[in-house]
Each structure stands twice: as C-alpha cells, then as structure tokens.
Amino acid sequence: MSALPPPGPPRDRGGASPETRRLVAFVDASAFYCSCERVFRPDLRDEPVVVLSNNDGCVIARSAEAKALGVPMGAPYFQIRERLAARDVAVFSSNYALYHDLSDRLLRVLERFSPDVERYSIDEAFLGLRADPRDPDEPTRLEALAREIRDAVWRATRIPVRVAIAETKTLAKVGSEFARHAPVPCVCFWRHPDRDDVLGALPVEDVWGVGRRWAKRLALGGTQSAADLAAMDDGDIRRCYNVVLLRTALELRGVSCLPLGEAPPPRRSLVRSRMFGTPLTDPGLIAKAVAMHAAAAARMLRREGLAASAVETFVTTGPHARPVHHGRAMTELPSATNDTLAIVRAARSLVGPALATSRVGSPRYKKAGVMLTGLGPAGQSQGSLFEAPVRERPELMEAMDRIARRFGRAAVVPAAQGTPDELRAVHAGRSPAWGMRRDFLSPRYTTVWDEIPTARLDVIDPARLGAEAEGAGGGLGRP
C-alpha cells in the first residue's frame, strides 16, 4: 500500500483543491453607456458625454470628462441644458438596444477566458479563475491575464473595462475601485502589497453589500473602514446584525461565501411599463401602449420558458398632476399561457376598467403598463374544470419570434399595438404621443439594418497613414 500524502491546507469554501486556489475576476466597464455611444462616434473619445434617462429626464451616465466639468449624476436635464450646451457636452438619450447588444458581445469575449462567467449587471461580470498558491509568480501572471482580458474586450467591442482579481467577489469589487486609480486598470488584489492599506482607507459604507443604514450603525460602534469590518468578532456581527453582514466580513477576510453561478430565484411576476412622452387622456392611445407592453411581456415569458396565470393593467398620472389617479384592473386567465395574442387581448380589455375607476375630472395619464403574475413553467399549468383553456398557438408564436429576431420587433405585431410605421417610430424615438421622448437618440447601430453605420473607403498613401497613426499615439488601437 502506498503511503498517504502529507496533509495540505484545507479546502476553501469555493471548492478548489489544495493544489489550486479558486479566485474571482471582476470586470467592470467604465462609464458603460457613454462608452457605448463612443464606439461609433470616435470623435467623442476625449470629449464630455452624458446619457439621459427615459423621456430625457435626468443624467444617468457621465464620462470622466463630464465628471471633471462638475456635471452631477441625477441632475434634471431641463435644469442643466444651457450649462451643457455652453461646455459642448455631447448629450444622448438612452439607447438600450445598443447597450444590451454591446453588453452581450462583451460577455461573449469574457467567456473565452473562463467557463464560469456570471453577469452581475449590464456592465459588470464575475469570472471564475484558478491559481497555484505555491507559485510566487502567480500574482504577476494573473495581472498579465487581467490586461489580456481588457485588451481582448477592447479589440472586440471598443469598450474600456477594469479588471480586478481576488479570492472573493467582495474583495474583487474592492480591487476594482483600487484599479480605478491605477495607471493600467488591471490589478491582482490577491497577495497585493497595498491590500491592507486599501482596506484600511476604504469607508465601510463603500463596501459592496453594506448599505447606508448599516454603515451608520457600524460607525456608532467604531467600525469606520473595510478593515474594521473584517476584524469584527463573528458573534458580535450575528448578535447585532445578521448573517448577510457576517458573509460580507468573511469575504473581506478572503473566505468565499458568494459562489459563482448560483441560480437566481425563480421569477414570480413580470412588469413592463414606461412613461409617455406627453401626458395622455385618449383611451385609444393608452390601449396601444398597453398592447405593446403586453406583447413585450409575452415575448419575455417565452424566452424564459414561463407562462402567466393572471394579467394586470395599470395606469397612473404623475405625482404632481391634478387630478391624481392610479387605476388598475386584473383578470385571471383560464389557463397559464405565454401566447402573445391572448395576453394582449386580456390586457387591452382591462384598460377601460382601469380608467373608469377615476371619478374626479379627466386625469392626464403619464404612465401605463402590464404586470403578469402567477408565473410558472410553460406547459405545466392545470386547467379549469369550468372554462375552456386559453388557445395555444406555439407554432405561430415561434414564427413571430423568429421574424422579430431577423427583421426587428416591429416586423409582425398584433394589430392592437398600432401600425408597423407607428411602432418603428416608437423604437426610433420619433414616437407618437404614447412613446417616450428621446430627442437625442443615437442609431441602433448593431441591431437594425436601416441604422447600420455607413463606411467610406478612401485610397490613402500607406506612408501617410503610418505617420498619422504614429502622431495620434496609436489612434483607436489601445483602450
């Protein structure tokens, strides 16, 4: 019988063997919305850029140049319009079709580097990595890998990102903030010589998972920094707070408590709504908006393999409107379904009841939407004994989805949504009254055939091209 190997260090909670250490890379796109707008507008590379919220309401994204000018996050656009114009700040309406497509492309690049990729948000993702703890040069190799990830994302998408590697998700988030100020924003926070100083200087309210309410309580007890939180006694944390904060403290010590790839909880409801470009009183226009949201919700159900048992339609005025009215009406379906026509029909039938509940004047509605509840796996619902089940048309729905993927969502729609021209105007920001106001919408360069950018090919002297590239410091070649 062969001798047993000598005992090694215990396994960590991430499940890595003693010979390898499981680490986490956190990839965060820099000013993502602004960076997306710059992908097809390289003339804005070093110019201040801001992106506005729905209906061009307020600032929701700023480039570094806009931050340097003092443009505040969340500022109402109508209050700073003249100030932005005076500083030549480029202003864009939210172009979510472009942002989501570029986010998907970014994610596909990350999947080249690890089979374990977890999308955390539209501009953030975690990657699972392995490291050899016995190799003293491993941190250097990982930092080189971080730079390789950043360069690959840049070549494929022209989106600059920060990459931080550490033992846990929380430490990787801390490392990302540290990388924000590094000459090249790629850092291996594992065994980093400045790590203790960084944790000691990081205010506890800036730690991922610690909200303002907890931060105030922690400060009263003398816990001011991330290092202070990591040093707290486990029993004190459990006794005075809860297990969530204890996990955060453990993660700051390098103990993984938030593994990658945990399945999200099943969706229980689905809401689709949007503000109107201008307040509405016409029930016909409101019904078209409701039908559009219902169709979009049904499409999401099919994409996630779910079906809904109940439909609710709601309308609301703004909080400062006179009279104020919030109306809603709900109906249960005979059987759970994700059929677009059935859900649109049910949602439209509820518009009248939702509006009719107002008994004070003629409200000017600012928003309408649809909520689907009673969600469950498609094809597994139990029908009613006394009502005929909803007529299912899976072949028709599949055909509609395929056409939408190939030719756009406005190619084939229920007539209740309006004409295809009306819907194209909504999606392009040239909307009728029930669409959003998007006066600064950029083209959907990557998802709509009619808006693909036009490239011009000129014959250029190679010697002149090389001189210009050298003078420009590499042009677009580096992030």
How would you sum up this structure, described in words?
The strands form three sheets. This protein has a five-stranded mixed β-sheet with strand order 5-6-1-7-8, with helices on both faces. The protein is of the alpha+beta class. Strand 5 and strand 6 (124-131) form a beta hairpin. It has helices spanning 32-39, 64-68, 77-86, 96-110, 138-157, 169-180, 195-201, 212-220, 226-231, 234-240, 243-252, 283-303, 340-349, 351-356, 394-407, 420-427, 462-471, and strands at residues 21-29, 49-52, 59-62, 90-92, 117-121, 124-131, 161-166, 186-188, 269-280, 306-317, 326-337, 365-373, 376-377. Mean pLDDT is 84; it is low at 1-15 and 472-476. The chain contains 17 helices and 13 strands.
Radius of gyration from the alpha-carbon trace, in angstroms: 26 Å
Report the biggest beta sheet as strand number plus sense, adding barrel if it closes: 5 strands, mixed
Number of E-state strands: 13
Q: Please state the structural category.
A: alpha+beta
Strand content: 15-25%
The succession of helices and strands, N to C, reads EHEEHHEHEEHEHEHHHHHEHEEHHEEHHH
| Helical residue percent band | 25-40%
In the CATH hierarchy, what is the superfamily of the largest domain?
A: Reverse transcriptase/Diguanylate cyclase domain
Average pLDDT confidence is 84
Biggest sheet: strands side by side, in what order?
Answer: 5-6-1-7-8
Low-confidence stretches: 1-15, 472-476
Shape: globular
What is the CA-CA span between the terminal residues?
58 Å
User: What's the helix count?
Assistant: 17
Q: Class of the largest domain in CATH?
A: Alpha Beta
Query: What name is given to the CATH topology of the largest domain?
Result: Alpha-Beta Plaits
What's the structural domain tally?
3
